[in-house]
Amino acid sequence: MYDFLNRFFGIEASGSTLKRELTGGLTAFLSMSYVIFVNPIILSDAGMPKDAVFMATIISSAIAMLIMGLYAKFPLGIAPCMSMNAFFAYSVVMHMGMPWQDALATVLISSVLFTILGFSGLRTKIIKAIPMEIKQAGTVGLGIFIAFVSFKNVGIIVADPGMMITFGGFNNPNVIIAFVGLIVASFFLVRKNQYAVFYGMIGAAVCGLLIRLGVSNGFFSFSEEIVASLPTLPQGGPLAFPIEPIKTMVNETLFVSFKSLGNILNMRGIIVTLTFLFLDFFGTATTLSAAASQIPDLSQEEFEGNSKIYVADALGSFAGSIFGTSNLSTYIESVSGIIAGARTGLMAVVTALLFLLSIFIYPMLSLVTAAVTTPAMVLIGVFMMQNIDQINWKGGYEIIIPSFLIIVMMPLTGSIALGLTLGFISWELCMIFAGKFKEIPSTMHFIFLISIAYIATL
Q1: Which of 443, 113, 40 is nearest to 264 (CA)?
Q2: How many Å apart are CA 26 and CA 104, to the nearest integer?
Q3: Distance of alpha carbon 46 from alpha carbon 48, whole angstroms
Q4: Which residues of 103-142 are buried (b: 16+ CB within 10 A; e: fewer)?
Q5: Does 122 fall in a domain?
């Protein structure tokens, strides 16, 4: 068996060992596993059935990582992207009013387009056409947006007649749970522990269970609504065969994207599809850049120039749209497997198999509330915020103005798409004002026109 694995994956040729690949796969799984619980929470806000999303998350992630491992043969993990599920739920469905079934159809089309780009030379041209500052500002804006939504959902931030928003206060136990989780996650992150997000969620869950225990014994008193929102231990044990989640997925989300294709043949559908494509495309490129920096003997060009990686990513989103989840993307957390020594696609295969085994822990969903997911959401925002230093704030205002608008307008308007389109429009206009029209790539002219068309639909 080892000889077969060694020949197929090139373990020894890459300077790795079987132990390193297995360890890397386990490490990547533990670093990414929070998505199994967080993704259903986010997409349930859009009205999607939580159990179905749980199954779709696991199945589509496993499929994508098997493709990554067996076809692309690279040590990277793929799962539903935390920024794109937020865009799906809070911008597309809740803000724009698109039914989640139609939103899945846009994910389907964007994944097909991404697959085509993955095989073509257009991929490189598009990456080079979008200004670096716009890409980085989009990442920062997404990070702030995700953290803001999490704060709002858990009650840390609430509406205020005078100040528009204000601090919700510690009279809400979910606020305490969220902050305890953040403190735990921060402790491990500062100590450079790669499982910081995972441990933060555990800390929040334990805190929630202790508060529920206090309520049961009469130490605390909260409204029935508040008590119902607290984490609770699964009934009947933590492990079970997921019969009900599978039934829910089959009945409510499976193949819904195909049935809804006719509903997105309009400007709104086109804009949403292109935005998903943009987010997926550049999210993958950013992750590959980070991964390349962890393997000394492989250049960034070897990572970014490998079309198979993009194809695996795109096919993962295609599978996600079929089973019932938002776009998948290459996970920055999976780089922890590379850091642990993995160098081949065997790592991705191991991670995929561990994801499949996790279908038996679906009863644990009762432990994962909005407060428990807050550490993950906020730390994702922290990670994405670091890209702000890639923006040249001392450059011309043709850079500063669009970057600022993207970062500010995403969270303030509650619309990722609007923030991006305002950034594209302002960048083109500011470049023209600066007398740099000839420096604008033709691809950006097309994006500018699409952005204008989107604004006109609002």
Answers
A1: 113
A2: 30
A3: 6
A4: bbbbbbbbbbbbbebbeeeebeebbebbbebbbbbbbbbb
A5: yes
Residue spans of beta strands (DSSP E) within 124-206: 157-160, 164-167
- Domain range for 101 is 2-156+241-367+383-457
Q: What are residue 319's DSSP bridge partners?
A: none
Smallest Cα–Cα separation from 104: which of 174, 166, 48? 48
Per the document, the length of the chain is 458
Token digits for 385?
Answer: 């915020």
Among 331, 359, 383, 355, CA closest to 74:
331
Q: How many domains does the chain have?
A: 1
pLDDT digits (tens, 9 = 90+) for 320-339: 999 999 999 888 778 778 87
Q: Which amino acid, residue 245?
A: P
Q: How far is CA 214 from CA 178, 217, 220, 237, in A?
A: 17, 5, 6, 22
- Indicate the pLDDT class of residue 300, thresholds 50, 70 and 90: low
307, HSE (Cβ side, Cα atoms, 13 Å): 11
Q: Could you read off the pLDDT of 82-111 as tens digits, one per residue?
A: 778 988 998 899 988 999 999 999 999 999
Better-predicted residue by pLDDT, 334 or 358: 358
Determine the residue type at 454.
Answer: Y
Distance CA 417, CA 152 (A): 20
Task: Flag whether 151 is in a domain.
Answer: yes
Q: Is residue 282 part of a domain?
A: yes
Is 113 domain-assigned? Answer: yes
Average pLDDT of the segment spanning 265-279: 86
d(CA 50, CA 41): 7
